[in-house]
User: Fold these one by one.
Assistant:
Number 1:
Amino acid sequence: MTQPVPFPPSLWASVTPDRPAAPALEGEIRADMAVVGAGFTGLSTALALAERGHKVVVVEAARAGWGASGRNNGQVIPTMTGAEPDVMAERFGAVGERFAQLVSDSAANLFKLVRRLDLKCEAEQTGWFQPAHSPGRVKLSAARVEAWARRGAPVSLLSADETAALTGSRAWYGGMLNRSGGHINPLAYARALAGAAVAAGVSLYENSPVQSVERTPAGWVVSTAKGRVIADQVMMAANGYTDWFAPGLAPRLAHSLVPVLSWQMATAPQPEAVRAKVLPGRQALSDTHGDLRFFRWDARGRLVSGGALIVPFNGAERLKRLIGARLAGIFPQMGVPTFDFVWNGRIGMTDDRMPRFHRVADGLWAWVACNGRGVALSSALGPVFADAMEGKAEADLPVPLTPVRPYPFHGVAKLVAPTLLAWYRHKDAVEPS
Ligand SMILES: Cc1cc2nc3c(=O)[nH]c(=O)nc-3n(C[C@H](O)[C@H](O)[C@H](O)COP(=O)(O)OP(=O)(O)OC[C@H]3O[C@@H](n4cnc5c(N)ncnc54)[C@H](O)[C@@H]3O)c2cc1C
């Protein structure tokens, strides 16, 4: 029997009740659709397909939520990190405009799904705030507010005083508030989605790393060490972990993103007096720094934050000092906090900060590279890929399909990518007013 993969320790893993493990894949199974990977994307795609009456199998290497979906900050954000909505529309025309709309509606739709299926995941639709760290960035916030408002997003531009009132800090100059956003316990959400998918009829297999996906005359064959699924259509939803368990599974796909480690940290529970002054409205917050400042409260009074490092050596201890001092500078009410949890996960990055959506071959679909904003988007992709697998015309989909383009010198790019943090820090320090 395949050895179960240990679940990575994190705040979320320590507070979230586990589900009983699904069986490992053994023998041969026939399905209409197969999905590789049980993160938000794979599970929401499988759920959408099963709700439409298809026979769906999900094959997960470890456990549902083992990848980015169970390790993230849980911020439900209806924007991308770098790709602006007008640029999406300019680059991809009508499809790009539909993609911008998909992103714009993505947070509201996640919370709707949570309410419809009663997914227990500590969901709080308190809004997402992006404060500006320089006067120049306030102009960018204003442009973003204008662009997202044109797409119907519930956004507003906050002044410096309003920002101070919302955050409890004078660290920022203003910013964009989007009231459709908020936060969740991401592992609880992944596990609840898995439960909902199984209840809708999805056959979930865990502890079953897929080794190959091949086209045969009988259909697409998804193979593990002990079993195989034969399906008409396959969705590759292994994203930033595509090469983690089986480097030979889809190397071109795995090399079309550059994986970067993002570190997450949770403080000790904070007293009521601090919680009343720091982000008292409990919004999720990620600011405009390239070296991102991000925070949100969890359900137990911990502030969940994190950061990035150029070199991961002794990362947890170094980050406790770095982020502890940063938090104390931004929120003096808190003093220097102690951290009970530090963990990390892989984010798939691209040079233009756009995710990649692929029809790899007839009946084989994939997406990769959320560029750090995938909680809301990956949930929104479920119905989109379900439509694609049901045969909706590619030109009518709300995602731009592009050919798979691996980065040349991928090994070098992986080494160099973390050093870009030094460049972001430099740019953050010389922001124009
Ligand atoms: C540390 C961190 C913080 C983040 N914070 C935020 C945030 O606050 N807000 C936000 O919007 N986004 C955030 N993101 C991004 C967000 O988490 C991801 O975009 C989202 O979870 C992607 O989901 P996914 O299902 O596509 O991929 P994943 O959740 O990574 O799922 C891929 C799955 O595929 C499985 N798999 C891999 N190989 C195989 C194989 N061979 N066979 C079978 N299964 C396989 C993996 O085990 C995994 O379960 C963060 C990401 C990280 C890493």
Number 2:
Amino acid sequence: MEPILPGAPWLIAHRSMLGVNKPHKITLNTHDYVIWQNQKGEIFAIDNICPHMQAPLSDGWICQERDTITCPFHALEFDGQGRLYREDKKDTQLITKPLELIISNDCIWTYAGFEPKLPIPDLHQRIVDEYEFIGVSGEKSIKGDFLSNIMVNYDYNHQNGTHKELFKITSCDVTYFEEKGYYAQVKQELIRDNNTLGELLKNPILGILPKTLTNTLEYAFPSTTVLFAKTPIGNIAQIHILYPEVEKRTKTFILMYAQVVNPLMKFLFQNSVLQAAATVIEQDTGAVESLYPKQKPKIRLPNEEIMFYAEKLYRNW
Ligand code: FES
Ligand SMILES: [Fe+2]
């Protein structure tokens, strides 16, 4: 497969997703890498294929004293730069490829070895400056190509179907859309009905959502979609991340940030807000996974130019 959007900055994980001295497998544009964080908070990523006899290093283990990863097959050790580690001497030669990482505000970015075509979006910095990190939610590998997944985030009609039940949406209106190259901003007004008691127990966050939701969405193509929403107990910035794993599989997760005044409220708010985000992801990804192969649409809906703007960025990359 041709790499998808080479030169794009991809946000492959948040530090909190890694734990300490635990190897994780990451697939980006068909390449498998193993990534881990040591007890000092240093993060390493190298090719997941062992250069000896091609075992997956992510099934191995980390040696805390030597800062190495051990292959599960014959127990050879490699350091985070991709050098073979023998007895107490390190080979100076790289034997396997390290993945170059850029760590910014606990977010782990990479260009996967391609010439950078876009900078790391400053949208993330703006959020970190004003909001507090709440947690990660909705991590999932979606059966669906990158384009179909990203288009959902720019689709201002899918709320009417995909999220109708959850948010009891009765109407959805786009009041503003502006794009500047790879950055775009949208303002949206959603009118909702009351939720039933059962729905409120399942997703308590619904109870505090007003009848009319005025949301702002900001986009940094292709990795990032942010939903800014105001709720009576705090403002949230919900960052939706996407990156291509393989041609027909896309990774997603949500980084949740909030401005909450009261610490008790934060405690109560945290879980329900993360839970609601996970439900939204389930619904979006469920929609993509159920689609038949793409054809030329025979019907147009309002505001679809926002979706076509994203599609154009993708096709003209
Ligand atoms: S395959 Fe990794 S040590 Fe042999
Ligand atoms: Fe959605």
